[in-house]
Amino acid sequence: SELEFHSAMLLKLAYAGRGGWSPGKSVTARAAREFIEDHLGRWVAALAREVRAHRAASPYRELFGLLTAVVSLESRQFRARPSPLSGRLPRDFMQDD
After folding, report:
1. Which of 44, 49, 80, 88 allows an S-S link to 75, with CB 3.0 to 4.6 Å?
2. Is the pTM of this model over 0.90?
3. Long-range interactions of 31-37: CB distance < 8 A, separation 24+
């Protein structure tokens, strides 16, 4: 869902850029940067490491390698500085069932 949300922001940004909608373009670019910093850019690399560590099937390893590269590129493009997660989150009692 986070990837889908980011793709919607990219479409909105492209639309704003083509139509000369400057206020919308700057607001959307800032929102995309903050979303990468606070959400998308934090978990992608950690999940990719877990996929490799658990020797997931090749398509998944390749997919997460590509996703990591894309999010890294997006981070540079938007000048985002996410604080990546270092590993798994602590146990969540809501998931016990």
Report:
1. 80
2. no
3. 32/6, 32/74, 32/78, 32/80, 33/78, 33/79, 33/80, 34/80, 35/2, 35/5, 35/6, 35/9, 36/6, 36/71, 36/74, 36/75, 36/78, 36/80, 36/82, 37/80, 37/81, 37/82, 37/83
Q: Distance between CA atoms of 25 and 33, rounded to whole angstroms?
A: 12
CB 58 within 8 A of CB 97: no
User: Could you read off the pLDDT of 26-79 as tens digits, one per residue?
Assistant: 899 999 999 999 999 999 988 888 888 888 888 998 999 999 999 999 999 999
